[in-house]
Each structure stands twice: as C-alpha cells, then as structure tokens.
Amino acid sequence: TFSNVLQATKAWFKQMADGKSLQIVSSYLNQPTSWNEGFKKTNRFYVIKGDDHFNLTILKIKPSDTAMYFCVVSSYHKIGMGAGSRLLVRGKFSSIGRNTTLQQSLTDTLHTGDSVSLQCSLFTESCAGEHSVY
Questions:
Q1: Is the dihedral of CA 12, 61, 68, 131 positive or negative?
Q2: With pLDDT > 70 as the criterion, what percentage of the chain qualifies?
Q3: What residues form DSSP beta bridges with 43?
Q4: Immunoglobulin V-set domain location, by residue (predicted)?
C-alpha cells in the first residue's frame, strides 16, 4: 500500500545478479497496465492494482526468476521506491501450485514450480527537517 500522493505511475522492476534491471510492468492512473513483452509472453506474471496498491504475482517460479524485485510509485516530482524483495529459487519441481508471498526486504527460499506474490508497500511518515531520496 502507498500514500494517495504517490499514485500516478506504478511499476515493478526486476534486478538480476549482474545488476541489470528490467521493467516488468507499469500502470499510469486508470489506464490498462503496460507489460514488458518478455514478461507478458510467459503468462506467469500478473498484477492486482488499486488506488493504494500494486501487487505482483509470479506463478510457477523458475530459477531464472531469482532476482531482487522493486516496486516504484511516482506522481509528478515525487517518487517512492520499496526496499525490494529478494527472490531466491533453488531445486527442482517440488511444490507445484504452492503460493508464497514476499514482503519488502524479506529473503525467502522457494523452489522451482512454486508461485509467489510480491506486495508493493511504501510507508510515508511525517518528520521535521530536510528530506532526501536516493
């Protein structure tokens, strides 16, 4: 979930071990989601979106899904980014149909054939002083 201030554009990114980042999917306001062609073709990725959330689910995970996943939301000049979810897939098909949900900053080991849901959670707090975003 995230603040109503940060709701114009929402996106999920995948960062692989080599540092390369790929945009998986994005959504602008109430327009249909826009998928990176490589992820759309697999039929294993889908999102559930609303005014305050943009959750990514990966079905039947594979070792190639191992990566850090980041949710980014923005509105004009304000940008928010989640801490990331590390997804580590090991082993062979062992638990087909099992769904696992990862929260931001959580590291969990899953197995090939499992499914996983990633939640975008950005929390905003009011505090005094100067603010910086990196």
A1: positive
A2: 68
A3: none
A4: 10-89
